[in-house]
Every structure is written in structure tokens, then in C-alpha cells.
Amino acid sequence: MLLLSIVAAIFDMRSRTIPNWLVLAGLLSGLVLNAILAGLAGLGSSLLGFGLALLVYVPLFVLRAMGGGDVKLMAALGALCGPHNWLVMFVFASICGGIFAILVVLWRRAARSTVVNTTHIVRELAQRRMPFRSNPALDIAHESSISIPHGVAIAVGVILFLYSVRQ
After folding, report:
1. Average pLDDT for residues 88-109, to the nearest whole number?
2. pLDDT score of 167 more than 90
3. Total count of domains within the chain
4. Could you tell me if residue 141 is inside a domain?
5. How would you class 143 by CB atoms within 10 Å of its CB: exposed for 0-12, middle for 13-18, buried for 19 or more?
6. pLDDT value, residue 126
7. Is the pLDDT of residue 2 over 90?
8. If phi over 0 gives left and psi between -120 and 50 gives alpha, with beta otherwise, what is residue 50?
9. Alpha-carbon gap, residue 37 to 10, rounded angstroms
10. Are 18 and 8 contacting, i.e. CB atoms less than 8 angstroms apart?
């Protein structure tokens, strides 16, 4: 998990992409290692972790609030650690991502526009509309969107998770 997340973070910082070969290696490693170490129960846990990650992250991808590499990275991590551990790691990564996002918003002096955009997102979702359709800047791929390399937040979340389970 540590190696996968750190390599992904490096790629994400440099190119804002997480390579498919990397997440595929993580996914296959998770499935195989869990099957070897715990048999069918381990394989089942690996698949549940993979599925939980997709359940949480695919809607964010559909809303264009998260990149595909981040979704695949979290799914691979879910396959490595199983659903319970993934959920704990997800909480750590989400807190880190939130802190990073706040720092970027403050650094860019974009607090007002962030509040306006957040209000717009909530309003559009309440009307069952995709927010990025009425405001293209809300698409993570749009050139003017403010985003962070989420792979870094995920890596820090993994480090905090691993530290917490050692204690």
C-alpha cells in the first residue's frame, strides 16, 4: 500500500495523472496476496474493499469532482487492504484532502468563489442536475478549476493509516 500510494503521488504531482499500469499492479497484487494469505475469505475481502472504493469514488468521478486515476488508485488500495481498513484509510485521506483543498483555496484567495461554487453544486444536485453542465469550471478537467493532486492526499492518508495500525 505504501509503495503504491507513494509512487502514485509522485506521478500525480509531476503529471497530474496516475498510470493505469500502476493501479493495475496494485489491484492484482491485492487480489493475489489476499487470496494466498487468507484463501477465498481473503479474496472476498479484497473484492469487497475494491467494490467499496468504487461505490464511494465512482459517483465523484461521474460528477467530475474526481479524476479517474484517483478512483482506480483507491479501488486498488481497497483490494489490498479490504473494506474495513479501506474505510479507515479513506477517512484519513479525506481529511488530508480537505486540509490540502482549504490551503489551496486560501493560497489562491478563492474563498468567496469556492463558497459560491459550493452553493451552486448543492443547488444543482438538489434539482438532480450535473453542476458542471451549467458551470464548466466545476469540471475537474476544466483549465480554470482549482484542484489538488489527490494522489498526494491519498498517500498521506495511507501513511497515517499505517501508522495508526502500528500503534
Report:
1. 95
2. no
3. 1
4. no
5. exposed
6. 95
7. yes
8. alpha
9. 29
10. yes
The C-alpha cell at 63 is 460528477
Q: pTM of the entire structure?
A: 0.92
Owning domain of residue 159: 2-110+146-166
Q: Give domain status of residue 128, yes or no.
A: no
- The answer to whether position 152 is within a domain reads yes
Give 128's pLDDT tier (boundaries 50, 70, 90).
very high
C-alpha cell at 1: 500500500
Assigned C-alpha cell, 144: 480554470
CA 71 to chain centre: 5
C-alpha cell at 49: 474493499
Residue type, 134: S
According to DSSP, residue 69 is labeled: H
Report the pLDDT value the prediction gives residue 144, as an integer from 0 to 100.
82
Please report whether residue 24 resides in a domain: yes
Q: How many Cβ atoms are within 10 Å of 119's Cβ, its own excluded?
A: 10
